[in-house]
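Supplementary Methods S3. Input chains for the assembly prediction are listed below.
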Amino acid sequence: EAQVTQNPRYLITVTGKKLTVTCSQNMNHEYMSWYRQDPGLGLRQIYYSMNVEVTDKGDVPEGYKVSRKEKRNFPLILESPSPNQTSLYFCASSWWQAGSPLHFGNGTRLTVT
Amino acid sequence: DAKTTQPNSMESNEEEPVHLPCNHSTISGTDYIHWYRQLPSQGPEYVIHGLTSNVNNRMASLAIAEDRKSSTLILHRATLRDAAVYYCILRDSSGAGSYQLTFGKGTKLSVIP
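Predicted structure tokens for the full assembly:
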């Protein structure tokens, strides 16, 4: 089954403790991206990747890092999480063409205390 | 800046058609119009997309204005399962714009039994 898998689904951590949220897709998509969703603010793009070893900032990249060493994986790294990064995070992938639909994961709910 | 404008919320009666509008007055000739919806507690899912012509699929229809500055997502018979937040986004096919995507807050559709 074609899918985007995020792990973990829920994560509670403390300020400053490094964490990684994983994202993996099995569709051989070139494009992958991360979003955060907060009440009243909709979905905001954090980072995106056009292909292996090619990444760029979205609208809200501060406090986040990403890497794209393999085509199927696009982890989101929070080196020193802060409470304002408490949010619902989604990973998505697609072919590079603009007419290609985005496939989203089921989300990771992160709480930073 | 958001490239699309949608009403915050809409209501529909069950089994009646629903027309969800989206304004994109600054659309370029290379922008695809995509629609996604997000059911409660789930990741967004693809609904439909188009470039210039109206499009139909098993989920919905997309009507694109002749000047392409607006579009309408049509659900032919709303069901309770269609209650969701609907997002209209533009995806540029001319290059890097394919990758930096702005979702905004979408339209929250309520379906009344």
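Chain B touches chain A through 27 residues (CB under 8 Å). Chain B has a mean pLDDT of 92.
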